[in-house]
Amino acid sequence: MRAEKNDKLEFVWDSAVKEIRGEGGVEGLKIENVKTGAESELDCAGLFVFIGYDPATETFAPLVERDDRGFIKAAGTVTSKQGVFAGGDCVRKSLFQVVTACAEGAEAAFAAVKFVEKIKGEAYE
User: Can you give the pLDDT at residue 33?
Assistant: First the structure.
């Protein structure tokens, strides 16, 4: 990864931010290693939080088709199970960002509302 070659960046894996120190900006962090429980402090002027690549979709495995990485297979927001819609970072796509996940979540919610309204005979097409 190109960022790992940058001397100004330090990667701290398997850790959670416990506290952000600083007044008017980031000056340091208190971090905890989630595997060992060890806490440490790190002086820094900023941070990027990385949660991971693996989608948390195990709950949906019996309901919908997933790919080899666990992402839910969807055409738009429509999954393999009628009435189940998906969007955001649980669906494979080219861009994983909060803004796209929120937009896709809204689309999936709207599709679900339309699905229920159609069943109830209240759909406005």
Answer: 96
